[in-house]
Queue: 2 jobs
Job 1
Amino acid sequence: MTNTILIHIDHAEGSLQRLIGLIERRGFHIERMTINDAGAGREVRVSVRPRDASRCADLLGRQIDRLIGARRIAPAAAASSVHVEEAVPCPA
Amino acid sequence: MSAAPMQKPAAQTAPVTGARLVVEALDHFGVEIVFGYPGGAIMPVYDAITGARFKHILVRHEQGAAFAADAYARVTGKPGVCMATSGPGATNLITGIANAMLDSVPLIAITGNVASPLMGTDAFQEIDILGCTLPIVKHSWIVRDPADIPAVFAEAFHVATSGRPGPVLIDLPKDVQVGAVAAPGSPYPLNEPARRVDPAQLRRAESAIGAAQRPLLYIGGGVRIGAATEQVRAFARATGIPAVATLQGLGVLPNDWPGFLGMLGMHGMRAANEAVQQCDLLIVAGARFDDRATGKLAEFAPHARVIHIDVDAAEIGKLRDAHIPIAGDLKTVLTQLNPRRPAIDDWRAQCIEASARHAFRYDAPGEGVYAPALLKELSEKAGDAFVAACDVGQHQMWAAQHCRFAAPEAHLTSGGLGAMGYGLPAGLGAKLARPDAHVVTITGDGSFAMNIQELATLRRYGVALKIVLLDNSTLGLVRQWQELFFDRNFSEIDLSDNPDFAAVAQAFGIEAFRISRREDVSAGIERLLAAPGPCLAHVIIDPMENVWPLVPPGKSNSEMMHGD
Ligand SMILES: Cc1ncc(C[n+]2csc(CCOP(=O)(O)OP(=O)(O)O)c2C)c(N)n1
């Protein structure tokens, strides 16, 4: 059920709050998170678990892609499905 | 004073203040109107706007500023701008920012804040407005260096208007407004690569459309936002596919368009909801499967394959899987989508026949004013110049059901947030944007009281907004739900001690009159539309009137209730 996402965010004020807020608001529990400075920004590795079966990690990835000043590194944004250790079905 | 200050900042010799750079940025981006309200933490900007090219409209409540700017943006397609001081000024903007977020409206909200050294100390009128608004903005900035102002504004205008539009917030600590800049930094390079529409999905969509037996076009607010009305009309004309619209998609197809079945969903047309339940292919253009449109999602369009077209890839598959997802700008997609005309004569005829059979009737018995008939007549008399700024409640649903809209920009309604109090300030913003149009605020006695102070703004600037106040002495929509779903336990919905709204309007210096009999409706509408200045018609209607039809909350759209 756990999905790990790697995101690059800029140093701007609020960018970390924005990311965490989005993940929780969209129905995911944050299990682990590491933040490392990466030159012009920060690299955030976050493991998330959906709060219920209707939450789809692929969709969460696309919602992260909408954030300004954030770039999803893995799973790659272009891929149609994210890296899932156990598949989370999108609502039919 | 053209674009020089933004593009050649280094050429400036004398130092300028951050506040001056704010004004220059707004002028540079062609802002015509800023809706705002001053206060301590934004005073340097107010000091600088005396030299601005844009006009400042002093509203009487910051929520009014945000709603007016929102409506200005919906009507013009350009970003609306509102401005407030720190603390209470900023928090008063919040409902308006949320409204813009949920309806994807490009809104630039500018707030002052306490000086940087005081931020984080619980200073007087200090609120973390960036934090408060994080979930309801597309993006936001705290400016820390006045030299960054040109770049931040450039990015803010770009973010607010590009892709799926939305509100942005720029928070300006007071020291940043007064700080002097010798040479402001250069704007961000804003070259967003144009996204290519996936040609493989387009070809799949074309063959699905060509082969469909019961296809249906599902039109949402994204069509107005993407300025794709003409492309949708051309597509509907070329394919002959029947269509339904969401609340925000009304006006894309004219009411009398053959094959247009009207609004779907909770208060939609029966023919529209039936067509959705029967269709085998749903072509979704700029809509997001909102629960007010779909009813019980699991039973929505049960036989349909879905082609979902949206500029926001995160909307596709959010609530309903798309068999053919097409992420891209609607205008571009529809121009490149050229299916052969499907053989659907029987289906089309069946839809058109059902639409005629279930059409609304306006022969309600009685002497009292029948609001649906009044709204229909109002929109028809105002004609193509009609623009409705609605509030929230029964009157909002009647306006959606019964008014004729020539274009989606003619129907301004708080769809996503459903915020009572939108109507009056939205009418103000829309009328300032389109002085030539018959802009009419359609409101209820509950909603009107929420931003009634903006009557003073109409008066001050001589804004010839027309107001139709449908007064049923109750919070009508809540009363209707209590009647239908809470055993008639009428709890806290009585407004029978309302003030005399016509007298209130007159006290604000606004022409006002009352309509209480059906026979006075036509003359009243004519008087309202002919009035040279702002004018309010206080219309007395039956407190027990309901909005029909209705899909009970949580039920499938196939379970419509029809009342009497
Ligand atoms: C700011 C806000 N508060 C509460 C509501 C809940 N609400 C929805 S409709 C409604 C009643 C509206 O009454 P009125 O404006 O008189 O319109 P009517 O339904 O009578 O036409 C209420 C209280 C809301 N949508 N917005």
Job 2
Amino acid sequence: MTAPDPAFEADCIRRILAGEGHLFHALIRPCERSIFFLLLSLLGDESEAEDVAQETAIKVYLNLKNFRGEAKFRTWVLSIARNEGLGRLRKTGARREDSLDAGTDDQTGDYTPAILTSWREVPFEALERQELGALLRQAIERLPAIYRNVVLLRDIEEMDVRETAAALGITEGAVKVRLHRARTLLQRELAPKLEGFAPRSKGLFAWFKSMRVEP
Amino acid sequence: MRIDCKHVWQHISAYIDAEVDAELRAEIDRHLETCEICSAILDSTRNVVVLIADDRVFELPAGFSDRLHTRLETELQLTGSG
Ligand SMILES: [Zn+2]
């Protein structure tokens, strides 16, 4: 994920509003991934999510003069994406039964982790194997939408609690509760399966850490 | 006060995000030293979090960005500031 740069964004916005519309391409590019995955999480369909992502980008462009700079630009963009996504759900009537604004953080449901007595290192080299990627995506798709959205923004797009709360229109407390449940559900679903992918050799973690360092 | 396994599980997500206070962190660390089950749960949860954050797990559909910017370009031309 490209980290957004507030100074670059502010400069871009000023110049776009002054007539340099072509700069909008560069402004929206760092937000594209987050827009798409938020919408995919909401709509559950890649082509729908792509279509609404395009409409979101156009809406952002047409409403750029309304951006006040109080929130982060990406947060503002994602709240527009969320509204567009909810609008699409209403229009198609194909509302997912567990959509974003439905469901309170009730206490029902079992959030007990999978009990393991041992755990090997992260099966990082196995990531190239399509089956592992598919396993991870499936587990996330199966989460209730209110948890899926939070895990998507926090753990996949790596936003902080505050930005996630603002983008989803929920409290920071709700972000933490939902994230905790989402991670527990994922651990329960994935940990027993991931053990089968665990490499036999040691020392992957050092390699893994060096890889995560941003250039 | 000694904390039990269930107590540790309630705080795993906050622990991973370094959002527990120093006192609770010390309690959890003490528990982890002697509890293999909680250690394995913590490690596996943390590893799941690390794995799903990898960019190779969630990729944009092929051509997504090109199609988006082509449509944007059309819109920019329409509004006369492209
Ligand atoms: Zn324990």
